[in-house]
Amino acid sequence: MHDSIAALVRQEGWRAEGAAARVHYDGGGDRFAVEFYAEAERVLYWTVPAPGGDAATTADASSTRDASTPTATAAPVPRDDVPDPLRRRIREDLAAADVDPSVERREV
Hints:
The chain is an alpha+beta fold. Helix content is 24%, strand content 25%.
């Protein structure tokens, strides 16, 4: 495991998945998966469908179903469409893991 991934998984919510680290974000009705790839030093953002496939049923579905169970396909999100507070949090987590936070801004 890369040192940067090992350091990220010590941050709240992050987990290791091979050569990447992933964290999920729920906020303001938006659901994202954020992935950091150590070898490429890139961050990718994905939309994550609500459990049950309907935002109106998210609260009910999350109480009866594992939120990590996919019900639809995740889709990549352009960086400009990601809320600034989430992007800031990701840069803070990267910095805390001794990863250059500017990698969050790098295009794929």
